[in-house]
Amino acid sequence: MPSCTITRRVHFNAAHRLHNPAESDAWNRATFGPCNNPNYHGHNYELEVTVEGPISEQTGMILDMKELKGIIQKEILDRVDHKSLNADVPFLDGRIPTAEVLAVAFWEILEGKIPAGELNEVRVHETGRNAAIVRR
Amino acid sequence: MPSCTITRRVHFNAAHRLHNPAESDAWNRATFGPCNNPNYHGHNYELEVTVEGPISEQTGMILDMKELKGIIQKEILDRVDHKSLNADVPFLDGRIPTAEVLAVAFWEILEGKIPAGELNEVRVHETGRNAAIVRR
Amino acid sequence: MPSCTITRRVHFNAAHRLHNPAESDAWNRATFGPCNNPNYHGHNYELEVTVEGPISEQTGMILDMKELKGIIQKEILDRVDHKSLNADVPFLDGRIPTAEVLAVAFWEILEGKIPAGELNEVRVHETGRNAAIVRR
Amino acid sequence: MPSCTITRRVHFNAAHRLHNPAESDAWNRATFGPCNNPNYHGHNYELEVTVEGPISEQTGMILDMKELKGIIQKEILDRVDHKSLNADVPFLDGRIPTAEVLAVAFWEILEGKIPAGELNEVRVHETGRNAAIVRR
Amino acid sequence: MPSCTITRRVHFNAAHRLHNPAESDAWNRATFGPCNNPNYHGHNYELEVTVEGPISEQTGMILDMKELKGIIQKEILDRVDHKSLNADVPFLDGRIPTAEVLAVAFWEILEGKIPAGELNEVRVHETGRNAAIVRR
Amino acid sequence: MPSCTITRRVHFNAAHRLHNPAESDAWNRATFGPCNNPNYHGHNYELEVTVEGPISEQTGMILDMKELKGIIQKEILDRVDHKSLNADVPFLDGRIPTAEVLAVAFWEILEGKIPAGELNEVRVHETGRNAAIVRR
């Protein structure tokens, strides 16, 4: 039988700024362009979390979508929604909050928190045009 | 050369209820919450079917999208669209109609019906936020 | 100065059946087609509620979106989400739950409940292709 | 003949914070909730600008969409995209950057800049769920 | 009671070229830019047709969505879908097929064909960013 | 650590016709149906390009999205946007411009042009319902 996964999609709104403090201001402006704006800009992020595993005979589910939603809410959304990703999120301290870095950071947090099946993919849409994906 | 697939997306509207008759009403209410409502609720389902295979020199196609659409129409949509997934669909009898169970059931039906290439993925979107995927 | 409105969009999942008990079964089948299926079908409804009014100098708002969301939640969503629109919703008793009838019923309920400004439009999307709109 | 309008949709990414400096911090937190976060949050805004007017026999157009796009780019997007709406946008100084206030401010700027026809509507989508509209 | 409308959304795929044969090639290239390409370009058009009228007590409908869909199919889609709007559509002969001109032409055709209620709005989306609207 | 990819989504508008000149007109009409229309039809194509690679410590990026966007613009969009895919695009000469053929052709062009990481997937959406995907 082929493998089965479920995906839950959530959203959050956050400010961010791309800036590497180890480099000069000129380097940061040249590298990150308008994303380096000191007073931030922001996004409506969409986050998709995918879990792979066997389907329970008793429930017809890999993992209850409501339970998965609750885990994402507690582990991720409560810590990033309506925040500055640079100033307000301890688990991002010292990291440049690109979509790639967010996807990796969310993977690291969620990987140990899935109660049935295992984390398969984390997808972060920064806009409708830009996304980063971490896959097992 | 890397592999190539095509995907056709269709939609159907159906009622469903999550309920396991082998368990008590209390267990069902606790497990499925509002999805256990006796008089059903429903969804605008989106179904994506992906086929992998070589591209024909003569047509430039793996499989004609119109032919794939016709197969999905006959094998799936004619049996689930504007139906109750619990009461009106023989191939779901005795199964709890979660997104996962639908994706597996659709895979089982479609796998033997693809005339060129082979079935690669079945994706069932229950809402814009919840999906289940079966992949080879 | 031109007028200003705000719109809040929410969603709910419900089952329904189009059936007029004053008419024969044959008439109902001929008139409503697959929407007359006795065991229901269902939709992911999207509901948009628009309020017109002056913008407060103190808040920059016509009406707080969170407050509007709370009113829609209490007055509409708590009564229709994960329900059968035919069997579980007292304010729809004796009415055929088309998109038009839902839009009118929601307008009647919401009109007296807007604490600032006045109700301007209620839009009910039954699918991505079908909608009904009530406008002042 | 009925009237005709054209609509151009564009997007921008910005940070903002809802805060009224004439009120206490406690009032601001109670009124704006997480939208009052001192380090900002942000959005992918969608802006729709509608122009009404007669259709030119020579071009088949009310106003060239590319020209309309250019006006919006110069008058609005160059001043708000990848910015903080509180700190970086002179025409918003002293105003609370809600969706309503943005829609009014954009209307005021664009109204005098439309070279053919007249401005008919400005719509600002803060998220897929929240919008403000100014109409003539 | 406020007025009620229904909207049906359909789509079609067509090629077009913006070109005014009464003007020089140089004028056409300068005015229409890449849209003047002699070998055409094309779009996935979305067409929304809105009808206003009283709601029938017997059906709960202004007009059956399936009937409205059938009228749009016969009067519009069968004549424009998978066509060149310049070369294959008699009712567009001698007209420049901009979104504005399409919206007006569709209005003219549909206005006399609505069997219950009256035509209220025709909206033509050329892309997700560009639309034209004719309203009563 | 799991692998990471980034995806950039762009769009273009083009005309095309499905026709194999090595076959008879009757065969072409029977095989391609309305897609064989001699005067073309067209689409709003969406193109998604995915790149896999290590994340730079210095930038937090696999590859700058702006740089990826520029490569797609120069290598693909400047050659296909507002064109006929049959008549105006040298790299498609002698090929039938289906979604599958476009995805393969874009892969061939982009594969050697990615300055960091490697091309992982090319996805071509012909409509919201039809797509072709080439994956490594």
Task: Tell me what you see in this structure.
- The structure is a homohexamer of 136-residue chains.
- Chain A has helices spanning 25-32, 65-80, 99-111, and strands spanning 3-16, 41-52, 83-84, 118-125, 130-135.
- In chain A, strands 3-1-2-4-5 form a 5-stranded mixed sheet.
- The model of chain A has no long low-confidence stretch (mean pLDDT 97).
- Chain A has one domain (3-135): 6-pyruvoyl tetrahydropterin synthase/QueD (Tetrahydropterin Synthase, Chain A, 2-Layer Sandwich), CATH 3.30.479.
- With 136 residues, chain A is of the alpha+beta class.
- At the A-B interface, strand 1 of A face helix 3 and strand 5 of B.
- Strand 5 of chain C pairs antiparallel with strand 1 (3-16) of chain E.
State the gist of this model.
Six copies of one chain form a homohexamer. Chain A is of the alpha+beta class and 136 residues long. Chain A is built from three helices and five strands.
Radius of gyration of chain A: 17 Å
Instruction: State the helical fraction of chain A.
Output: 25-40%
Averaged pLDDT of chain A: 97
Q: Termini of chain A, distance in Å?
A: 20 Å
The CATH C-level name of chain A is Alpha Beta
Q: Categorize the overall geometry of chain A.
A: elongated
Low-confidence stretches of chain A: none
How many structural domains of chain A?
Answer: 1
The count of DSSP E runs of length 2 or more, i.e. the number of strands of chain A, is 5
The CATH fourth-level homologous superfamily of chain A: 6-pyruvoyl tetrahydropterin synthase/QueD
Structure class of chain A: alpha+beta
- Separate helix tally of chain A: 3
**Biggest sheet: strand arrangement of chain A:** 3-1-2-4-5
How would you sum up the major sheet of chain A?
A: 5 strands, mixed
What oligomeric arrangement do these chains adopt?
homohexamer
Q: Give the second-level CATH assignment, the architecture of chain A.
A: 2-Layer Sandwich
Which two protein chains have the largest interface (Cβ within 8 Å of the partner's Cβ), and how many residues from each?
A-B, 20 and 26 residues
Please report which band the strand proportion of chain A falls in: under 5%, 5-15%, 15-25%, 25-35%, 35-45% or over 45%. 25-35%
Order of helices and strands of chain A: EHEHEHEE
CATH topology-level name of chain A: Tetrahydropterin Synthase, Chain A
